[in-house]
Amino acid sequence: MEFWKQTKYENYEVSNTGKVRNTKTNKILNGSIGKSNGYWRISISIGDTGSKYTKTIEVHRLVAETFHGLHSPLIVDHIDGNKLNNDESNLQWISQANNLAKAKKRTKKERMFTFDEYESIHVEFLSNKQTITSLTHWINNKFNMNHSRPNIGKMIRGDTYKIFYNQLNN
């Protein structure tokens, strides 16, 4: 069951599932995936009329701080390794050293796609007019993988998987 808590930022709440909403407008913020690190982030307005500014926040950190408290100098770990799963039950505070050790253990090799998987990816890309970033998110969730945005871009352009690409485009 989803429930909401007030964050440390005025006019913003976060849910235990990782959604963020503005309490003034009651709208859920869309956010985006950070290109450099792959984490969901949102932009919020802070301050009043005379001194208002925008701050970009990583959602996993906001969820962890709100539901588990702030534990500096520890960092937030996604227990299942999925950077986009910001459910409070999937987040924990750990040391940088432990986080690096966990990352080494769970690094997934980017396995090869079957032709059927490749075809479904192209259908998803073309039919839903997805960006490479959103397609990468879709692929990693659907196939439980950890592919990077540049590699998915190469695959869509036919730079990799050339045999599959040629089969689909002939």
From TrEMBL:
Domain HNH nuclease: 59-99
Any GO molecular function: hydrolase activity, acting on ester bonds
Superkingdom of source: Bacteria
Pfam families in alphabetical order: HNH_3, NUMOD4
InterPro entries from the UniProt entry: His-Me_finger_sf, HNH_nuc, NUMOD4
Lineage, broadest ranks: Bacteria, Pseudomonadati, Pseudomonadota, Gammaproteobacteria, Enterobacterales
SUPFAM superfamilies assigned to the protein according to its UniProt record, in alphabetical order: His-Me finger endonucleases (SSF54060)
Domain NUMOD4 span(s) in chain numbering: 8-44
Protein name: NUMOD4 motif
